[in-house]
């Protein structure tokens, strides 16, 4: 999982960075640093995501679409 996918999961859950941090039991600055690519996603955070979020077909489809849109937007910039 990379920083864009991490952010995509948060957005799909419709959570602010502060709420997502609380949900995962980490600081808001940790969530922000991961999303900006300044910090790797630790094994602990990955485990918490796997425990708390169902990576079902709906989420995977959303993340695939999110990645495609991200590539288009960054390509045009």
What do these coordinates show?
With 77 residues, the chain is mostly helical. It is 73% helix and 0% strand. It is built from five helices and no strands. Helix 1 crosses helix 5 and helix 2 crosses helix 3. The longest helix is centred in the C-terminal third of the chain and has 20 residues. The protein starts with a helix and ends with a helix.
Element order: H for helix, E for strand: HHHHH
Taken from the alpha-carbon principal axes, the silhouette is: globular
Through-space gap between termini: 24 Å
Strand content: under 5%
Helix fraction by DSSP (H/I, runs of at least 4): over 70%
Mean pLDDT: 91
Please report the number of helical segments: 5
- Given helix and strand content, the structural type is mainly alpha
Rg: 12 Å
Write a concise synopsis of the structure shown.
The protein is mainly α and 77 residues long. The protein has helices spanning 3-12, 17-24, 28-35, 43-52, 57-76.
List keywords for this structure.
77 residues
Q: Topology, pairings included?
A:
Blueprint lengths: L2 H10 L4 H8 L3 H8 L7 H10 L4 H20 L1
Helix pairs in contact: 1-5, 2-3
């Amino acid at each position: 999982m990379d920083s864009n996918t991490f952010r995509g999961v948060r957005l799909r859950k419709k959570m602010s960075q502060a709420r997502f941090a609380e949900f995962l039991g980490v600081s808001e600055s940790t969530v922000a640093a991961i999303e900006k690519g300044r910090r790797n996603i630790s094994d602990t955070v990955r485990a918490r995501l796997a425990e708390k979020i169902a990576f079902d077909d709906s989420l995977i489809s959303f993340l695939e679409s999110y990645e495609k849109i991200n590539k288009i937007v960054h390509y045009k910039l």
